[in-house]
Design brief:
The protein has 266 residues and is mainly β. 2% of the residues lie in helices and 37% in strands. It has 1 helix and 13 strands, in the order E-E-E-E-E-H-E-E-E-E-E-E-E-E.
Length: 266
């Protein structure tokens, strides 16, 4: 109320999802009580803080990305964005909450996840993915999603059992890996590091949940299809320019693909 005492406000007041509580910081992103930790992609879909073994040969996971069969951004059937309520409505307004299990078993989506967490893991700040990847084409999109996986037994809210809730996401079109104003082809079959900013977040992965990362190369129709062969202007691409490509995500000591998360140390 005006002239009734002094209002003490922190520099940043944010809502921590997961724990569903308000948190305050002296700056945003926070500078104090935050440790940058790397979640490394491992064999057999494992995700952990342990770097790949030094002695291990270069290893990777791969998939075929086909523009003719793109990964949808939400579960089909996809209604028109502004579908009237009397015609079934639209899930457009809630697509960011879509359970990602609907794409987990696709052959063109790679998934890594941690073991169940032994304690709450709260993150606050910028999340960054570092992909070491190659493509058999000369252009490619790289989509990275950070996901909170609910336990397989969740009595307090059974409908959330096993739910895969997307926490952070972003796409990078490979032609813009160096510059957004000077696109250039990707050297075919060469390993390149892609740094993908998943933006800031304030979220708590609770005990017994898992942390998951998914990688794919299409996200349709949220993003237009990439021909996967470099053309000067994608909007003028011909049908013959759209080709299926082999995508490889490396996870070795030389090419340690990982996601860096800002872990709060309370």
């Amino acid at each position: 109320m005006k002239d009734k005492g002094k209002l003490e406000q922190p520099e940043a007041l944010t809502f921590e999802t997961g724990s569903n509580r308000w948190t305050s910081f002296e700056a945003w992103p926070p500078r104090a009580n935050v440790t940058q930790r790397n979640l490394y992609f491992g064999a057999n879909g494992q995700l952990s803080y342990v770097p790949p073994p030094t002695a291990a040969p270069p290893q990777f996971d791969s998939y075929v990305s086909d523009p003719a069969h793109p990964v949808p951004y939400r579960q089909r059937p996809i209604e028109p964005t502004y579908n009237p309520a009397d015609q079934g409505g639209s899930r457009w307004s809630t697509w960011l909450l879509e359970d990602q299990r609907f794409v987990e078993n696709r052959s063109d989506v790679l998934t890594w996840e941690t073991e169940p967490l032994t304690q709450d893991t709260a993150i606050a700040g910028d999340i960054v993915a570092h992909l070491f990847a190659s493509t058999s084409g000369t252009d490619s999109d790289w989509v990275v999603k950070l996901i909170d996986v609910y336990p397989e037994s969740y009595p307090k809210d059974p409908k959330m059992t096993g739910y895969e809730l997307m926490i952070a996401d972003e796409i990078l079109r490979g032609r813009f890996r160096r510059s957004f104003t000077r696109p250039e082809p990707i050297p075919a079959n060469q390993v390149i590091e892609y740094t993908i900013d998943l933006h800031t977040n304030d979220h708590a992965f609770l005990k017994d949940h898992r942390i998951m990362v998914q990688v794919q190369s299409t996200w349709f129709p949220l993003y237009d299809r990439n021909p996967q062969e470099f053309v000067p202007n994608i909007f003028l691409a011909r049908d013959s320019d759209y080709v299926a490509t082999v995508q490889r995500i490396f996870r070795s000591s030389r090419y340690p693909s990982h996601v860096t998360i800002p872990v709060l140390t309370r």
